[in-house]
Write a structure and sequence with these properties.
The complex is a heterodimer of chains A (about 100) and B (about 230). By secondary structure, chain A is mainly β. Chain A is about 0% helix and about 60% strand. Chain A has no helices and seven strands. Chain B folds into two domains: about 90 residues, Immunoglobulin-like (Sandwich); about 90 residues, Immunoglobulins (Immunoglobulin-like), CATH 2.60.40. Classes of the chains: A mainly beta (about 100), B mainly beta (about 230). Strand 3 of chain A pairs antiparallel with strand 6 of chain B, so a sheet runs across the interface.
Chain lengths: ~100, ~230
């Protein structure tokens, strides 16, 4: 399965102040999850109906120098996190 | 109806406490929950929940992907099967802050929420959709909140070159003069206080003049700030 990685570069030069700045980072990773990982199968034996669905989905993870992280499934919206993520331990996972 | 019997599978094999030590499985009010108290890379796989009753069966499969060999506190997959096994035909997703809710068909549904978990030293984000689970480490490339600044000083004075660097994991920060790394010594003292890094030149001489740079590197990126020091 193909994984795409996008990186970012910033290059600045302040000639007047004789200062320079340069940065490079892995910004975005898009990975394809196999179809079997995203499937649904149902059978209604009384009505003789079955349903099966499977499809690839793309997981997206993005990080940035400004301490913001975004992730989610492509096409279904992203969740944004301000880092470092603050939550008191022990963590309630489903609340 | 009647309430279905539910069973969990991993890669097609029935899950029990002998095949998956520490696993907690519960099913009440139509809510089936599988908890792995501390996941490792070996727990990655296809997890399925099968709900069966007299009129049929329904299976929902999700992938658990653990991307590093780390003990994590909890991973929970939960799927509501109260009204499963009826009519299907469309997938609809709704979004609300911090959660993803998917309505599959008319009567069965699955819900997942985004969030974060981890140990004291590592934090992990998870994002659960009804059929896809993704876990990634909390990372941020190095950033210079405060960059190096060029300066002109008199011979014999004390000079402090200072930067403020953020990043997760904590970046490795190194000082250079004209491209050569500076080793901390009594005359060129490098110190760190939180995210503040400084190079203290006890007594500056004209030969200390030059281009100073600071490089910050971690697993997701690197950054360099450069400035000039002129000692008159």
């Amino acid at each position: 399965m193909a994984t795409s990685e996008l990186s970012c570069q910033v290059s600045e030069e302040n000639c007047e102040r004789r200062e320079a700045f340069w940065a490079e980072w892995k910004d975005l990773t898009l990975s394809t999850r196999p179809e079997e990982g995203c499937s649904l199968h149902e059978e209604d034996t009384q009505r003789h109906e079955t349903y099966h669905r499977q499809g690839q989905c793309q997981a997206l993870v993005q990080c940035s120098p400004w301490l913001v992280m975004r992730m989610g499934i492509l096409g279904r919206g992203l969740q944004e996190y301000q880092l470092p993520y603050q939550r008191v331990l022990p963590l309630p996972i489903f609340t | 109806m009647p309430v279905p019997e539910v069973s969990w599978f991993r890669d097609g094999q029935v899950i029990s406490t002998s095949t998956l030590p520490g696993v907690q499985i519960s099913f009440s009010d139509g809510r089936a929950r599988l908890t792995i108290p501390a996941v490792t890379k070996a727990n990655s796989g296809q997890y399925s929940l099968r709900a069966t009753n007299g009129s049929g069966q329904a299976t929902s499969t999700a992938e658990l992907l653990v991307t590093a060999e780390l003990a994590l506190n909890h991973v929970i997959i939960w799927i509501n099967v109260l009204n499963a096994s009826k009519y299907l035909g469309y997938l609809n997703t709704h979004q609300s802050p911090g959660s993803i809710l998917a309505v599959i068909g008319q009567m069965s549904w699955a819900q997942g929420r985004s969030g974060m978990f981890g140990s004291e030293s590592h934090r992990w984000f998870w994002n659960l959709s009804p059929d896809c689970l993704k876990i990634a480490p909390e990372t941020a490339p190095p950033n210079f909140v405060q960059r190096l600044q060029s300066m002109t000083v008199r011979q014999g004075s004390q000079v402090r070159l200072q930067v403020k660097v953020t990043g997760i994991p904590t970046p490795v920060v190194k000082f250079y003069r004209d491209g050569a790394e500076i080793q901390s010594s009594l005359d060129f003292q490098i110190s760190q206080e939180g995210d503040l890094y400084s190079l203290l030149i006890a007594e500056a001489y004209p030969e200390d003049s030059g281009t100073y740079s600071v490089n910050a590197t971690n697993s997701v990126g690197r950054a360099t700030s450069t400035a000039e020091l002129l000692v008159q």
